[in-house]
Amino acid sequence: MKILVLLSRVPWPLEKGDKLRAYHQIRHLAQRHTVILFAVTHQKLHTDALTQIAQICDQVHIEKISWHATAWNMLKAWFANRPVQSGYFFSRKGVKRLKEIYYQEKPDHVYCQLARMAEYARAIPGPRTIDYQDVFSEGVRRRMEKSSFWLRPVFRLEYKRMVRYETDLFDHFDGHTIISEADRELIRHPDRDTIRIIENGVDTDFFHEIVMEKKYDLVFTGNMSYPPNVLAAEYLVNQILPECLREGMNPTVLIAGATPSTRVKALASATVTVSGWLDDIRYSYAESRIFIAPMQIGTGLQNKLLEAMAMRIPAISSPLANAALNAIPGTEILIGDSPEAYSRHIAKLLKDQQSAEVLATAGQNFVKRRFNWNESVLKLEQEFSQG
Q1: Of all residues in the chain, what percent carry a pLDDT higher than 90?
Q2: What CATH number has the domain spanning 2-201+372-386?
Q3: Is the pTM here over 0.90, yes or no?
């Protein structure tokens, strides 16, 4: 099968969840199919991005969108009653180029990742599948609840438009996929139960247990300019750590990940290290006793949890972060629903090494059993064949 893949970001490096999902799906699809990639970008490409992508794709087409075109398209989306982010990734020149690629290559199937690339997919005919991945409208709603009084009306309008947009898109695609049951339940279309759940995998050949000296008690990783991660890092430092201090603990913390925002950098202290980008994120896990994911907003599956647990690091998460993961609380993961609960879990794992070992082993076994890229992509191929 010849598959045309539409992405809103170039899938390298793998510092964001949508890029990681796309890269590994393409890598496995390319073992059995011809893959043509069409991706848009606003950024200068990473130095080895094209080299890495060319190794897994038969063709690579990158459409650079200028910032002035982006501003104009966002403005048009606003007045057209569409979500602003659908305009952010749109390019009329890109659509023209995509049509040329489509009619020249005549792919058997078009795979569109994320609702924000739907305007491109709708411009070309043929069988097509949309990967909602996670539900953007719900992410906007949760940001709205945490936003300032002045920004709340803007987020509320974007939320309403995104709900309608995600629902309307359904009927324009032959196949539909999403990352978790929890996310599927948030889609408003009456036929949402037909959306196939395609979970992420984890590369356990890469993310395996590494024995190193423990430099940190807690680690939290992710793209540190992404608002849900920024809020989680602040919650960790400003809410959880003070509770730990009240309980007689003073844990050391590593906050690791690309492009830390000014707010995240401001969290650094004698006991909190903000590392920024790391060439090998595995060492941040291996040097830490506990992985913590106190996510307060956001949707979808947290890849950081899969990676840490695959490396046999005991994990504590919020109920929200575990909603898509579905690990068994108290057996495979610990759940914190308040600073006090997080503090209790941290104390237990730091003081009781046997409990930490049992939790880490159960978590690792769970991830290895449930999250496999090859099996995930086989399900995706089934969706293509039925679309």
Answers
A1: 94
A2: 3.40.50.2000
A3: yes
